[in-house]
Structure formats: structure tokens, C-alpha cells
Please model this.
Amino acid sequence: MTSGTVYTAGWSLDDIPWDRFDRSKASPGMIAAVKAAALVEFNAPAYVSYLARVFEGAERSLADFKRWGDEEAQHGLALGRWAEMADPAWSFEQAFARFQTGYKPPHFTSEETVSVRGSRRGEMIARCVVESGTSSYYSAIREAADEPVLKEIAGRIAADEFRHYRLFFDTLHAQDEPELPFWRRLLVALGRINESDDDELAYAYYCATVGPDEEAANPYRRSEYARQSFACSGRIYRRHHIRKLVQMVAKAVGADPQGRITSWAAAFMWRLFQFRAGSTLASAPNG
Ligand SMILES: [Fe+2]
Ligand SMILES: [Fe+2]
Model:
């Protein structure tokens, strides 16, 4: 947190100062980013069902995951409400219904009880990667947003996402499964990072920004909407957010977050972001 405000867990929508909303400070790019994020967040309960299969019998973890899913869903509600205030023609409910219908990864619908990452430890590493991404992303939104209500929402969500990382990190190390070799941990993390090109973010961006009446003229194409989604979020990140993201992933796989290889990886990742998001990225004065 850069502003010194510490947001504790357990907040509700009533804690958001909605009456301070200032539409003139909500930019189109930020509105699109928030709409897409709202859809992904609100879909978390589907992931809780999957985790409940993978962690069957681990009652304490299941209770933690249920609370996690509730917090993610609340993130979706807060972001969705903000997006509807910023764009009154947009319906969160309608966009989410389309997203939920069209986005059903195989592990959500199967009865498989083994994680798609191969083990519970692998699953927790993948969750740490996701929370590294979300905590960095909402920190970036908090810093980039001019609109005061969004700034507060993003600050509260970012604080939750750092706590989620801690939850999955602690659950990872509480497993009585044998430790995975380093190469295997790295592979799981890289595999999860690579999935940011899959349908979840691209299709959320599509449902968020292309209305149902525009679908025929603008059919969904993963590569195109993955590119647009990446360009949209890429404009929000700054170099220090990417560095933090890479450091958190390094810690999750058991590498040194302050080590030289992590620094190289962070520099490489930042270059990749700049390249993929196009020339619209601002340079990072505080990198
Ligand atoms: Fe979240
Ligand atoms: Fe989270």
C-alpha cells in the first residue's frame, strides 16, 4: 500500500463511500478493465466447487476456501456496481450471465478429484500465481485510478488479494504430500502464467465490452480479445507492480524473491508487457 491506508479483512459493500463517485474521473479504458475484472471475480464460487473436490476431507482448508470465494464474489459485486455507475447502459447481471454460460473450463465440469496441476501442492502454487497477479493488478488500478470510489475499492480488494496469497502460500506448506522438485514447481507456475492467454480473461473482456446486440457483428475470437484485454490491463500496470508480481511468484516456487534471477525475470516480464501491450504503455518513472 502506498498511501498508508490499511484495509482490514471483512469489509462489506456498505463500507464503500458510493456517494463520492465522480463520473467525470472515470476513463473509458479503466471502465472496460473494471467491467472485465468484475466478471472474473464474480465467477470465483465455481472455483470453490472445484477446490472442494480437490481438497475433500480437509475441513479447515475447505472453510478457508469458502471464505475466499465469498470475498472474491464480493470483489465482483463492488466492481460491477462501480462499472454500472460509470456506464449506466451496462448491466453487470446480463454480462455475467453471458460470461458464465460461455466460460466453462473442463475442470469446472468434471468429477475429477485430482488437481489439474497434478497435486494439492501444485494447485496451491497455481493459486499463489493468480493472487500474485490480482494483488499487483488492483494495486496498479488503485494507483492509476483518478476516480475516488474506484481508488478505495481497488485498495480494499488489493489488501484482500495479498491475504489470499498468504492463505494459499500457508496451505501449500501445510500439505503432507512430498515436496515437489523445483523444476516441477516452476513448471506449474509458468503453466498458470501462460494461461493468462486462455479464454478466461479474453472472454470476460469480450462479454464486458461487446454488448449482446453487437455479438453478430463482433463475434468472439480468443486471440483478438486476449490482445485487447492485455492491452487494456497493460496500460494500468507500472514496472514496480510487475516486479512485485514476479517476486511473489518466485517466493511461491521457493526461489529467492530478492535474487538476481528474480530481478532478471521481472525485467524480462516488464519488457514482455510493454511489447505485448503495444507502444501505449507509459514508461515507469519509479521502476
Ligand atoms: Fe479478487
Ligand atoms: Fe483473490
User: Anything to note?
Assistant: Confidence is low (pLDDT under 50) at residues 279-287. The two ends are 16 Å apart (CA to CA). The longest helix spans residues 59-86.
